[in-house]
Structures are given as C-alpha cells and as structure tokens.
C-alpha cells in the first residue's frame, strides 16, 4: 500500500453522542484505534506525513480546501460518523458524490441504533463499542483486523466495483482536473498543535495569549467547544464590566443560548453574568447566572460544574434580599438540588481525563457541603493545573462564606 493514500473524516476532541449524555473521545478513537491501522499498512496522507485527519494537517488558511481536496484525491476515505458531526456527514456525502468506491464508514453502536441510516445501509460499515474499543485490547485488535481487511478489499477491488450510493445510478462521470501534489499548502501549524498550545496557555492562566490562539483556530475551522474556550479566555483576560458586557454581546451574535445544549458554553455564560453581578450588584445578572447554570446542569455528562455553581448561587440570596423567608427558600432549594445531584451520581457515565476527574471530585465535595454541611473532605485538594487550583480555591472560599452566612441568617443569629 506504499503508494496509496488515505484521509479520515471525523470530528476531534470530546463530543457527545446525539440524544444522550454519553461522551465519545474522538481523539482516542483516532489515535488508538484508526491511525495505527493506517500507519502499519504504510498508507500515505495527502498532505503532511502521517497527517490522515484534518486537524493534523499544517495550514495557515481555512481548512475547507485541504479537506475537500483530500476527500477527492484520497484512494481511501474513512468516515467516523459516531457523533453525527455536521461536517463529517457533509464530507461523507461529498466523497460519495466524488468517488464511486473505497469509502469506509465507522460508527459507534449507540449512534447507529438510535439513528439508523437507511441511505447508506448497504455501504461498507464497521461498528464498534466505545468502551471496548479503548479498554479491551482483544476487542480492539479484532475490530482493527476488520478495518484492515476492509482497507485491503477496497484497494484490491475491481475497477468497476461501486460502494457509493450515488454512483450506483450511473448519473454522471467524474473527470479530475487536479492531481495529487504532496505537501501543497502545508505551511503553518496544524489545528491539533494550536489547540494543545491554547490549552496549555489557558491552564497556565495566560488568558490573553490563549484567546488569540483560540481565535486563530476559529478562523480556520469553527467548533462550538473551541468557541466556548475562546469565550472563557476572552472574559478572564480582563474582569471589567466593559469587557464582560462586550463578551456577552459577542456571544449573542454567535450562539442561540435559548436552544444551546452545550453545558460548557452555558456554564461560561453563567460565570460571566456572575462576575458582572459581583461588580455591580444588579440582581438581573445574578438571576441570569442562575438560569444558565441551571440550564447547563440539565445537559451535564459528568463534571457537575453547572450543578455545583447553580447551588452556590442560590446561597447568595441574602446578598440581594433582606427577607428571611426568601433566604430560607433559596437555601432549602440549594440543599435539595445538591442532594438530588449526589443521589444521581450512580447513574453518571463518565469517561474522563485526570483533569476532569479532579474537577468532578472537587464539585462533589462542594455539593456535599451544601447538601449535608460536611466540609472535612474539602481540605485535601491536588490540582492538576494552575487554573484549576485558582478556580477551585477561590470558588470554595466564596462558597463557604455564603453557606455559613446563610446558616446564620436562617437560624436567627
């Protein structure tokens, strides 16, 4: 296969399987399952060496051209549609419209059960279990062998063989006007490299530099999770009312928050409103922060960030109301919500990193304080990054102040 090329169509990062709260780490799927098969079979990439997936391709321009060219020129295209990523679905359609054969579809079992694709049911497909493919070595090897056999079959197939539903109907013929020219348009860093750089800057609290890097990525390829991190860095670089309001205005132009189910984005918008309330004490910003945290908690798949902060903001009622009954109402609402979250922990399906585990564990500790008044466990804390240490430490100090002040009020002290 030394002279054959391959391109992989799929999203990147951690994304939810539609209609569920289950997250799928697409980077792990690619680097641990797909890419090893391509490398050991000596398949080439269209652009930079071993850059089979779009975010690996070095580029200084919008990635659309590289993507479309790769989809057209590659001898084999592998499309993982597990998260129903709009771009991946579109690019799969492009490939089927461009080439009559050698398109392989991958899909996680949950997705294909919930969203069966009638139109591509006869196309070559490989289905896998999201947990087993990463944790069970024998299972992974078995599915990799299946992928390898399919690759070989595609490359050795009769020239007249067709696996594209489009070409089945013999509607037209494609005559290429371009030829493969390796390393064309490969100046600059890959999106993957830029994301890693931006993450490092963010976690080291270099927010202004991280903001610029995330904006650079967004100018190359839009992704809602990247947008949320850009917004995070944009507001954290300058905690002034002017910058915070400007950031909210930017968000309104980019995202419909009423219909958004992205818990990270909803949580960040809530945090911005909370910061504005801390600066100007206008009740409407506290109410908006509560609403966005509450909405975000409905879509959380593991770290409890929105749920923890929603409860914490309920405990701030004494800051805007002198009515003891109102303070009591919000306190007991916080206690009830925190207990509900802790009770439902057993049903959470979490497949996270060490960094995410730390966020999760610290949020559980804070919810335990709110629900049961237990704070012994919150003393021990081993942060993974500088930002995590600052966020948890300052947030916990604020929470304890509000919690114990609220207790004094409702007990009449």
Give an overview in words.
Among the domains are: 6-169, 3-Layer(aba) Sandwich (Rossmann fold); 300-413, no CATH class. It is of the alpha/beta class. The longest helix is centred in the C-terminal third of the chain and has 25 residues, at 386-410. The model has no long low-confidence stretch (mean pLDDT 89). It contains 16 helices and six strands. The strands form two sheets. A four-stranded parallel β-sheet has the order 1-4-5-6, with helices on both faces. The chain has a two-stranded antiparallel sheet with strand order 2-3.
Q: Short summary of the structure?
A:
Helices cover 55% and strands 6% of the residues. The protein contains 16 helices and six strands.
Instruction: Work out the strand percent.
Output: 5-15%
* Count of beta strands: 6
C-alpha geometry: elongated
Largest sheet: 4 strands, parallel
Distance between the termini: 79 Å
Q: List the helices and strands in order.
A: EEEHHEHEHEHHHHHHHHHHHH
pLDDT below 50 for ≥5 consecutive residues: which ranges? none
For the CA atoms, what is the radius of gyration?
25 Å
SSE layout and pairing:
Elements: E1 6-9, E2 14-16, E3 23-25, H1 26-40, H2 64-73, E4 76-80, H3 86-98, E5 103-108, H4 109-114, E6 125-128, H5 132-135, H6 137-155, H7 191-203, H8 207-220, H9 224-236, H10 241-254, H11 263-280, H12 283-297, H13 305-314, H14 324-343, H15 354-372, H16 386-410
Helix pairs in contact: 1-6, 2-3, 7-8, 8-9, 9-11, 10-11, 11-12, 12-13, 13-14, 13-15, 14-15, 14-16, 15-16
């Amino acid at each position: 296969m030394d002279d054959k090329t391959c391109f992989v169509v799929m999203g990147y990062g951690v994304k939810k399987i539609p209609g569920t709260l289950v997250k799928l780490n697409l980077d792990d799927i690619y680097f641990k399952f797909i890419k090893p098969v391509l490398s050991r079979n000596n398949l080439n990439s269209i652009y930079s060496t071993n850059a089979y997936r779009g975010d690996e391709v070095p580029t200084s321009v919008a990635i659309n051209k590289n993507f479309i060219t790769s989809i057209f020129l590659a001898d084999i295209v592998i499309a993982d549609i597990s998260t129903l990523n709009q771009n991946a679905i579109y690019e799969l359609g492009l490939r089927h419209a461009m080439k009559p054969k050698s398109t392989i579809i991958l899909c996680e079992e949950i997705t294909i059960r919930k969203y069966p694709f009638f139109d591509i049911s006869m196309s070559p497909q490989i289905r896998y279990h999201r947990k087993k493919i990463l944790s069970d070595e024998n299972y992974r090897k078995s599915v990799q062998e299946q992928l390898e056999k399919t690759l070989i079959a595609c490359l050795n197939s009769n020239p007249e063989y067709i696996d594209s539903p489009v070409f089945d109907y013999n509607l037209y013929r494609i005559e290429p006007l371009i030829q493969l020219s390796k390393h064309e348009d490969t100046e600059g860093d890959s999106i993957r490299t830029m994301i890693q750089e931006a993450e490092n800057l963010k976690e080291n609290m270099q927010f202004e530099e991280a903001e610029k890097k995330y904006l650079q990525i967004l100018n190359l390829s839009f992704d809602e999770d990247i947008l949320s991190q850009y917004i995070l860095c944009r507001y954290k670089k300058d905690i002034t009312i002017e910058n915070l309001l400007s950031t909210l205005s930017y968000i309104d132009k980019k995202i419909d928050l009423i219909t958004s189910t992205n818990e990270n984005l909803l949580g960040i918008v809530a945090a911005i409103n909370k910061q504005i309330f801390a600066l100007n004490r206008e009740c409407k910003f506290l109410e908006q922060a509560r609403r966005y945290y509450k909405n975000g908690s409905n879509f959380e798949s593991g770290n409890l960030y929105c749920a923890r902060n929603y409860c914490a903001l309920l405990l701030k009622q004494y800051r805007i109301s002198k009515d003891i009954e109102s303070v009591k109402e919000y306190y007991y609402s916080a206690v009830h919500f925190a207990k509900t979250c802790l009770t439902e922990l057993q049903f959470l399906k979490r497949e996270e990193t060490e960094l995410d585990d730390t966020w999760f564990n610290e949020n559980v500790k804070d919810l335990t304080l709110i629900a049961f008044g237990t704070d012994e466990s919150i003393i021990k804390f081993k942060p993974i990054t500088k930002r995590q240490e600052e966020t948890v430490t300052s947030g916990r100090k604020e929470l304890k102040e509000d919690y114990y002040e609220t207790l004094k009020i409702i007990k009449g002290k």
